[in-house]
Amino acid sequence: MNTCTYCDSDLSSYDPVSVERGSIDTDGERRREGQFCNYACLSAHIDEEGLTEGACCRIEL
Ligand SMILES: [Zn+2]
């Protein structure tokens, strides 16, 4: 059964948002980062895990 990575809701009643890590990794594998019942859960998960910390797309002025 698919459940939300953040709140553990059953995703069968949602249109889930799934997140995969892109082709950035050098090992060539796509990893599933998680799946969420909506963007609110995704956003909360990102905040909680600090996933935007150290992101490389920083704008240098
Ligand atoms: Zn959720």
TrEMBL record:
This is MYM-type domain-containing protein. It comes from Halococcus salifodinae DSM 8989.
